[in-house]
Structures are given as structure tokens and as C-alpha cells.
Amino acid sequence: MKATYFFGLQAISLVLLFGCGNPATINTIPTEMNFVEIPSGSFFMGSPADEEGRYADEGPMHEVNIQYSFEMLSTEVTQSMWEEVMGSNPSVFVNPNSPVESISYSDCKNFIEAMNQIDPAYFYRLPTEAEWEYACRAGTATRYYSGNDQENLEQIGWFDKNSPSTTAECGLLSPNLWGLYDMSGNVWEWCEDYYHDNYFGAPTDGSAWVEPAEPNMVSRGGSVGSSSRRCRSAARDACDPNFKYRFLGFRLVRVLK
Fold first, then answer.
1. How far apart are CA 45 and CA 137, in angstroms?
2. CA 126 to CA 21: how far, in whole Å?
3. Mind listing the pLDDT tens digit for each residue in 141-180?
4. Going by DSSP bridges, is the β-strand pair 188-194/248-249 parallel, antiparallel, or unpaired?
5. How is domain 35-255 classified at the architecture level of CATH?
6. 23-54 pLDDT per residue, tens
7. How far apart are CA 143 and CA 71, in angstroms?
8. Which is it for the CA torsion 150, 153, 154, 158, positive or negative?
9. How many DSSP H helices and E strands does the chain contain?
10. Cα–Cα distance between 172 and 195 in angstroms, integer?
């Protein structure tokens, strides 16, 4: 699946699109949320030219130096987390412990705005694409963070060969070395960056690539509907943020203010 979905950045608003509800009145973050610390460090982003299954938009490989630590949600945002904050559940595959899906980029921004009001000690946001790949790899350079073969993927991710094409409950398979679950498979995950079809001119400090503006946003990780090729650590896709897809969700990053 190398589909491109139409996208246009919108101003952050607490007025959600139809079907996504209004923020609930809560005073603390959902109890199921577990954030893990991602340490500062450097890595090579993208894939080498000889990697099996590589797409052209994964290059050129380039070194990224992230000189700060940040916290990332250990799982994708679940339906119960979403409903506790937003008061509704837009998902197709209804299960409180499965990832929320069928949400647009602007829906994610509305959720994040609500989280920032609930917990003013932190700044909540989407991960940048570089942060996402850095956190996914957790120090590895293989096709998947568990190894190079499809059998390695089966240990960590739900994809088209080990899933009935419905999303799975979060956190059932093995995490990566930094304690993150389902970075490969289950649902695609929105990132903060505009999608570019190569890395020429990409930031090298971990920041989001937001200039020049492009029509689509980046999503990462693959899904239960994806081939093993699409679930590699370097694999990318382009999505319009107005698009709502049953295999597209997100996870959070936060930093102390």
C-alpha cells in the first residue's frame, strides 16, 4: 500500500470534526497511559540501498543527532484513552484496549490540545518523523527492531500474515529495547512532519520537517493490513490529515515544560 491521502494542515481547535465528540471534563490523564523515556543520541535515518524491500523515499540515509530526551507513550493511544479524554469513540474495530483509529490529523491535534489542558506540567504533541524512527529502532539498524526476517516481525507486530485484518489489543507482543509496543504493525501512526519523497534537505536535529509545506503528512509503522515490507523501521507513507482510515492511529510524545 503506497497510497497518498489528501491532507491540509488546520489550526488547532477544540471543536472536533463530526463523529469524534467533544472533550470530556477530566482532571488527570488516563490511568492507562504509560510513558517511557527515550534518551538523547544519534542514529542513521532511512534504509541502505541494499535493504530488502526498500522504497526510494527512504533515502538518502543520513545521520540525525537528537540532543534531548523525550517521553513516548509505550503503546498507541487506545480507544479507552481517547474516550476518556474526548467522550466518544470513532473507531471501526471497537475494543477499549485496541488502538483508536479512523481519526484525522486534526482529530489528533484536538486530542493533544485537550491533553495539554489536562496536564499543564508537560507539553504533549505528535512525534516528529525522526523521533519516531529513532524510538522505533531503539539502537538497532536491522529491517525490524527485532531482526531482518519476517519471523522476527511476527514477534513484535501485527501485519497481514498474522492478523485477521482487525486491529489487535495494544501491548500483546514483545516491546523494543526501550519498552515501546506495536511500533511495527497494528495501526499506522501519524507524525508531525509533511511528507517529502526523499530526505534531501531533511532536518538532522530531530525536529519536524515542516518547511516547505507539502500537501500530505507522514505516517509510520505499517498496520494489520500491511505487508511485512511496509512494517520495516524505515518504511513511510503519505497521508492527508482529513483522511480517516480504520488502520490509522497515533501515539503521543511529551516533554516537561
1. 10
2. 20
3. 999 999 999 999 999 999 999 998 899 999 999 999 999 9
4. parallel
5. Alpha-Beta Complex (3.90)
6. 766 778 999 999 999 999 999 999 999 999 99
7. 24
8. negative
9. 4, 10
10. 30
